[in-house]
Amino acid sequence: xxxxxxxxxxxxxxxxxxxxxxxxxxxxxxxxxxxxxxxxxxxxxxxxxxxxxxxxxxxxxxxx
Length: 64
What we know:
With 64 residues, the chain is α+β, with helices and mostly antiparallel strands. It has a single domain, classed as Factor Xa Inhibitor (Irregular), CATH 4.10.410.60. It is built from three helices and three strands. It has helices at 8-13, 38-44, 52-62; strands at residues 14-16, 22-25, 47-49. It has a three-stranded antiparallel sheet with strand order 1-2-3. It is elongated. The two termini are 18 Å apart.
């Protein structure tokens, strides 16, 4: 049986931590940055944990 291929869109957007949680980059850091405060930009630039409901699908796309 052939190997399962990793979803190429998912491997660019998600990463799995050592404890098995799925991380993603938050939205809102692409444009209109001059109107946002420094605090808001700093908080948006942090990675976020994907909810477990969605993480199950992401893990399947990543082959984990």
